[in-house]
Write a structure and sequence with these properties.
This protein is an alpha/beta fold and 399 residues long. It has 18 helices and 13 strands. The strands form 2 sheets. Strands 3-2-1-4-5-6-7 form a 7-stranded parallel β-sheet, with helices on both faces. The protein has a 6-stranded parallel β-sheet with strand order 10-9-8-11-12-13, sandwiched between helices.
């Protein structure tokens, strides 16, 4: 098959949620089919990192879309009825590129990653269309509204409603839709009509993410995540303000390490605390994870599958998380991970792990065994073969 893949960001390196998923999907497909990639890039630096993709894609075309231009366009679109997300990623050049590719040669499938890229699918053409929503973004914006004050909450709620209308209309116009977890599928099911919905879970690179034989004995907690992402910022500030002080009442020397690129001023200021380290972007997160005793994932806003949890579990690093962040993973609370939603319960669970090396080691072993049994990339992505078989053969390829 010949597949045209459309992405809103250069899917390399696979160091954040959307890049991780799109990179592994593209690589899996390229091993079995001919894949051409077209994508947007917000910076020259991002575009320069794309070379490894050319090793397995037939073609890689990158369209620059400066962030400043995107923000201005989104502001201008505020008075329209279209989601600001679509305005933010709008690109006439990318639209022309996709249309040109489809004119030049026949494609068997167009696969768009995320709702923001579905706008570039030429629906007037007969080529089969798949959209990988991954997460239900509209629900995420509703969650943003719950955790912010006016007037931001009004803007976030409005964007959630607009995206929800768009997601519903999109389901009527595509041949198949993929999401990352059963919870996402449950949210979409009432509006899918006859459009097939498929859950395609993320995996974790088990060869890359391998930890020490035992978690660190040092009283160090770690959070890993891109720090220009609202949900991560909210979670870290919530942890620092409401949970960490309770932990330090019991363990005053507890350290907190925040690993992730582009931390905003509110996060950088946390580094003034001598026992809090804000690293910014690091090329390899594994050394920092190996030096930690516990990974904390105190997210109050979450959709889909949290790669940070899968990676910590693969490293054998005990995880304390909220139930919302654990949705879609299927790990056993109290066995593979520790779950706590109340700040006091979260702090108490973390202190118990810090105080009990045997408990940490047990969770470490069970966590690694769990991801080995459920989250190998090749096993997770095999469902792609069945998904492609369901697509109508408009361009004459043999199933």
């Amino acid at each position: 098959m010949r597949i045209l893949y459309i992405a809103h960001r250069v899917p390399y390196p696979p160091d954040r949620g959307d890049r991780i998923r799109s990179y592994h999907v593209i690589r899996y497909l390229a091993e079995r089919h001919r894949v051409e990639l077209v994508c947007l890039s917000s910076s020259k630096d991002e575009a320069e990192k794309a070379e490894p993709l050319r090793e397995f894609c037939d073609a890689v075309d990158i369209v620059p879309l400066p962030g400043a231009v995107s923000r201005i366009r989104a502001l201008r679109g505020f008075l329209s009825t279209k989601p600001l997300t679509l305005w933010f990623f709008q690109s006439k050049r990318l639209r022309r590129l996709v249309a040109g590719r489809l004119r030049e040669r026949p494609f068997d499938v167009v696969l768009a990653f995320s709702s923001s890229m579905a706008q570039f699918i030429p629906f007037h053409r007969s080529v089969p269309r798949i959209v990988d929503l991954a997460d239900v973004d509209s629900d995420k914006w509703f969650q943003y509204a719950e955790h912010t004050g006016f007037p931001k909450s009004l803007v976030y709620r409005l964007e959630g409603k607009r995206l929800q209308r768009y997601e519903r209309s999109l389901l009527d116009r595509i041949d198949a839709c993929m999401v990352i977890s059963p919870e996402e599928e449950r949210l979409l099911r009432p509006y899918a009509g006859e459009t097939p919905l498929f859950t395609l879970p993320n995996g974790v690179d088990l060869e890359y993410f391998q930890g020490p034989s035992r978690p660190s004995e040092h009283p160090r907690l770690i959070f890993v995540g891109v720090m220009n992402y609202f949900a991560n910022v909210d979670g870290v500030l919530y942890f620092h303000e409401q949970i960490l002080p309770r932990i330090r009442e019991e363990r005053p020397q507890t350290e907190f390490v925040i690993v992730g690129g582009d931390p905003p001023p509110a996060i950088r200021r946390l580094g003034k605390d001598r026992n809090v380290q804000v690293t910014g972007y690091v090329r390899d997160i594994r050394p920092a994870m190996r030096e930690a005793a516990v990974c904390v994932v105190p997210l109050r806003i979450a959709r889909g599958v949290q790669n940070k949890i899968l990676e910590a579990m693969a490293m054998g690093l005990p995880v304390v998380t909220t139930s919302r962040a654990l949705e879609g993973i299927g790990a056993r609370p109290g066995e593979d991970v520790i779950v706590a939603d109340d700040p006091g319960d979260f702090a108490a669970a973390t202190v118990r792990l810090l105080d009990d090396p045997r408990s940490r080691a047990g969770i470490s072993r069970r966590a690694r065994a769990f991801v080995e049994s459920r989250y190998r990339w090749n096993s997770c992505l095999q469902k792609l073969d069945a998904i492609l078989q369901t697509i109508p053969s408009e361009s004459g390829w043999e199933k």
